[in-house]
Specification:
Helices cover about 75% and strands about 0% of the residues. By secondary structure, it is mainly alpha-helical. Helix 1 runs parallel beside helix 4, helix 3 packs antiparallel against helix 16 and helix 7 runs antiparallel to helix 13.
């Protein structure tokens, strides 16, 4: 495929950084207030399955991204990367605010789905970087995507928590639309950030491919891409060591995303029932704390740990640390909540922060060593990871509804025990991974 001769300037790279960050802000911004929004709407509609609807709203975004990613990728091949990225930002600007006006559960669900549809273009941002980067620049510039993910997941929940129900905290908002729709303000802030990124992209983001030459090439249809993606994922899972590593990653992601739904349900639950009685602001600060720990881990800890232990050994250690943190969440006591939560969240965030780059690095080297096509391997990992992000929150919401009113151990502890079990199976599968000298950076 032909690319333009012009390299991406700082403005273009900043625009790509913001596109990716807005994606994670859109995913994370609803986490702190989602349970409260569902409860408010459910009470008006006589709905009692709170956990199920929380899971559905969490899953809708990831499902839409999974479905739409091949379409946006194909479209960007035909009409260019720039217009597709800008279409996504327009969609964000509209549907983030629309979600804040939700007055029924079905409307909220549809707005989350449409927001996910327009946020299915992260692969296009990666393709843009690939178009305009030399091999020497590629690793550093792809690192911008990872940094944007971490920062977006930190900023999103913080905004969602701090600016929910503003009329209860600031007189300025009393009697305004923000009192009628208490979760509108954080959604508007996300829309403003998206609109600002759109303006920057319009002026600073040049096209990265020669559209005229690309139009002469044929690209597969959406249906063909979905079939290819499914068959590729199944074939990769059947391989020995590469398949084992992909299973490890998928089970890890499944356990981690089950937590996304049940964590906020547990935090919101009344302390008399075993929960923490957290507010939206408390939830936002909790998830911001997870984000900061993750950024610190990937920015400071991962290098020394990799040199000391090697990538292969870090994988089971990081899974075990994450699993311990997830299992301990419902054992937090209200009289020491912030100290205990600090310890629990540090386990989860550091474990996840070590696992993500270590698993990707190991899988890349494993694929090259065994002669597999790297694109096929990484595509299978991404597809199955997306699948885990779809079923994880929904599974968590269903298990919560089935067990929350039971007696120990089949009560609100159960979903977190499920997270730990999935992590245990994931760690167990690492025994099938080769421990070769060339994978060990400590050598």
């Amino acid at each position: 495929m032909s690319t333009t001769s012009r390299d991406a300037g700082k403005g273009a790279l900043l625009a790509l950084f913001l596109v990716t960050m807005i994606d994670m802000i859109g995913f994370g911004i609803i986490i702190p207030f989602l349970t409260y929004l569902v409860q408010d709407l459910a009470a008006e509609q006589g709905v009692v399955r709170i956990g199920l609807w929380v899971g559905l709203l969490m899953t809708a975004y990831s499902t839409a991204q999974f479905i739409s990613s091949p379409f946006w990728g194909s479209l960007s091949d035909r009409i260019g990367r720039r217009p597709v990225l800008m279409i996504g930002l327009v969609g964000n600007t509209v549907f983030f605010t629309a979600f804040g006006f939700s007055n029924t559960l079905l409307f909220a669900l549809s707005m989350r789905f449409f927001a996910g549809i327009f946020n299915g273009n992260i692969a296009v941002a990666r393709a843009y970087i690939g178009d305009v980067s030399t091999p020497k620049q590629l690793a550093t510039r792809m690192g911008l995507i990872g940094a944007a993910f971490g920062l977006g997941f930190t900023i999103g929940p913080f905004i969602g928590g701090e600016f929910s129900s503003p009329a209860d905290r600031w007189d300025l908002f009393v009697g305004t639309v923000f009192e009628t729709y208490p979760y509108l303000l954080p959604c508007v802030i996300a829309s403003v950030l998206s609109a600002g990124s759109l303006v920057l992209a319009y002026y600073k983001l040049p096209e990265s491919i020669d559209v005229e030459s690309v139009k002469k090439e044929s690209s597969p249809s959406w249906g063909r891409q979905m079939v290819n993606m499914t068959s590729n994922s199944v074939s990769m899972l059947r391989t020995a060591t590469v398949g084992a590593m992909i299973w490890v990653t998928m089970l890890f992601m499944l356990g981690f995303t089950v937590m996304h739904a049940v964590f906020i349900l547990y935090n919101e639950m009344d302390p008399s029932m075993g929960g923490l009685g957290f507010s939206e602001q408390d939830n936002g600060r909790i998830f911001a704390m997870i984000g900061f720990f993750g950024i610190f881990t990937q920015g400071v800890l991962i290098g020394p740990l990799t040199r000391k232990l090697g990538t292969r050994r870090l994988i089971p250690y990081s899974i075990a640390l994450t699993g311990v943190g997830l299992v301990l969440i419902p054992y937090t006591q209200t009289n020491m909540v912030w100290l205990q939560m600090l310890l629990v969240l540090s386990c989860i965030a550091i474990g996840n922060g070590v696992f993500q780059p270590s698993s990707s690095t190991y899988l890349t080297r494993l694929a090259r060593d065994e002669g597999y096509d790297l694109g096929a391997v990484m595509g299978a990992q991404e597809s199955l990871g997306a699948f885990a992000r779809i079923i994880g929150p929904l599974s968590g919401g269903v298990v919560w509804e089935l067990t929350v009113n039971g007696s120990y151990p089949w009560d609100y502890h159960t979903p977190f025990h499920l997270c730990g079990f999935l992590m245990f199976i994931s760690a167990l599968l690492t025994l099938r991974l080769p421990n070769l000298v060339e994978f060990d950076e400590s050598e």
